[in-house]
Specification:
This protein is an alpha/beta fold. It has 13 helices and 14 strands. Helix 6 links the parallel strand 9 and strand 10. Helix 9 packs across helix 12.
C-alpha cells in the first residue's frame, strides 16, 4: 500500500523544491550590501554605451544595467560605470572588478567555454561589416583586394577579417589598433582604405566621428554572426538567473505591450494573466530570483521594454538610424524570442 504513494510523494517534493525561493547568491548579496551595481561598459560606442560631457551614460547596453539595478536595488541610477577597452573587459569581469559586462560583446563558443563567463541572452543581433569613403566607389567588401583595413585588436573582428581575406584571396592588410579612438582617427585621416567592426559600431562611428556622415558608406556585406550579449561570472547561478531574466522580461514586456508609459496603469487594472505574471499582480515570480514581486515592473519603468530601449538608442528615429531587422520580436519576423515569464 505504501508503494502506491511513494511516487506521487516524491513528485510533490520535487515540485516544492522547484518552487522554493532562490537564495540571493554572493554577487547579489554584495550588490545589495554596497547599494550599487558595478557595470562594465565600452569606452564610448554611441547608441550602446557612451558618456556625455557631464558624465551621464546612455545607450542600449547602459539601459540593460539600469534595468538590472532597478530590479535589484529599486533605483536605476544606482550604477557605477566602469569603461573598459576590449583587452580589459574579460579580466575585469573575472577578477570581480565589475559585476556584469554589458559592452557590445559577441557570444562565442570560446568565450563561453573557456573564460569562466556566462552570457545572459542576446540583446542585439549584429554582424561584422565594412565602412569605406563614398568617393572610393567600392560597393562590396570583395572589392577590397590589397586594401588597408583599420581593425581593433583583442576582438573577434580581427580574426574574422583575416579569415575573410584568406577565403576570398584578397590579401587585405590589417592596420591594428588597441583602442577605438585610435582606429577611428586612422580611418578618418585616410591611413586605412576601409574600417571593419560590427555593423552597428560602424554606424555609431560614422555618426559620431565623421564630419559629414554621408561621405562614408557601410557596405551591405556581413561576414560574421555577432550576437551581442551581457556576461556575468560563471559559478554564481543565482545572479546569472536574475540578470538573464531581466533581459528576457524586457523582451516579454514588449511582446505583451507593457511600456514605460502604461506599466503603472497595467499593474492596477490589467485582467490579462500574462501581464499579471510580468508585473507581479497575480504571481510572485521575483521570489524565485531573490527579488520582490515588482522586479520587472521597476525594470520597465527604468527605461521601457526592449523595443523602447532599441528605438531610443539605435533605432530608425535615433541618431544611428539602424533598422530593427533581426532584432524584431519573433512574432514580427525577427529573432528576439524570450522564454515565458511564468
Amino acid at each position: 500500500m505504501l508503494n502506491l504513494f511513494k511516487k506521487p510523494l516524491l513528485a510533490t517534493c520535487a515540485l516544492v523544491a522547484l518552487a522554493a525561493p532562490a537564495h540571493a547568491g554572493k554577487t547579489l548579496e554584495a550588490i545589495k550590501a554596497r547599494g550599487q551595481l558595478v557595470c562594465g561598459v565600452s569606452s564610448g560606442v554611441a547608441g550602446f554605451s557612451q558618456a556625455d560631457s557631464s558624465g551621464k551614460w546612455s545607450g542600449l547596453d547602459v539601459d540593460v544595467c539600469r534595468a538590472i539595478a532597478a530590479s535589484v536595488l529599486g533605483d536605476a541610477n544606482k550604477v557605477k560605470w566602469v569603461p573598459l577597452v576590449s583587452q580589459q573587459r574579460f579580466a575585469a569581469l573575472q577578477s570581480g572588478e565589475v559585476d556584469i559586462l554589458s559592452r557590445n560583446t559577441s557570444w562565442t563558443l570560446t568565450r563561453d567555454a573557456s573564460l569562466g563567463l556566462a552570457f545572459t541572452g542576446v540583446t542585439y543581433y549584429d554582424g561584422q561589416g565594412f565602412m569605406v569613403p563614398a568617393k572610393s566607389k567600392v560597393k562590396s567588401a570583395k572589392q577590397l583586394k590589397n586594401a588597408t583595413v583599420c581593425v581593433q585588436s583583442g576582438t573577434t573582428t580581427e580574426k574574422n577579417l583575416s579569415e575573410f581575406s584568406r577565403i576570398h584571396q584578397l590579401n587585405i592588410k590589417p592596420v591594428v589598433f588597441e583602442k577605438f579612438d585610435a582606429a577611428n582617427a586612422a580611418y578618418f585621416s585616410g591611413r586605412c582604405q576601409a574600417y571593419t567592426t560590427d555593423a552597428s559600431g560602424l554606424a555609431s562611428i560614422r555618426n559620431k566621428e565623421a564630419k559629414t556622415p554621408a561621405e562614408h558608406v557601410v557596405l551591405p556585406d556581413l561576414i560574421s554572426k555577432e550576437p551581442l550579449s551581457p556576461a556575468v561570472r560563471r559559478g554564481d547561478d543565482e545572479f546569472f538567473a536574475m540578470a538573464k531574466w531581466v533581459v528576457f522580461g524586457l523582451i516579454e514586456a514588449e511582446e505583451y505591450g507593457v511600456t514605460q508609459a502604461n506599466v503603472d496603469a497595467l499593474q492596477k487594472d490589467s485582467k490579462d494573466p500574462n501581464i499579471g505574471r510580468l508585473l507581479g499582480t497575480t504571481e510572485d515570480t521575483g521570489k524565485l530570483l531573490g527579488l520582490d514581486k515588482d522586479w520587472l515592473a521597476r525594470a520597465v519603468k527604468a527605461g521601457g521594454n526592449y523595443g523602447e530601449i532599441f528605438e531610443r538608442n539605435v533605432g530608425p528615429k535615433s541618431p544611428l538610424g539602424l533598422p530593427r531587422g533581426s532584432n524584431k520580436l519573433w512574432s514580427q519576423g525577427g529573432l528576439m524570442y524570450a522564454p515565458p515569464v511564468r
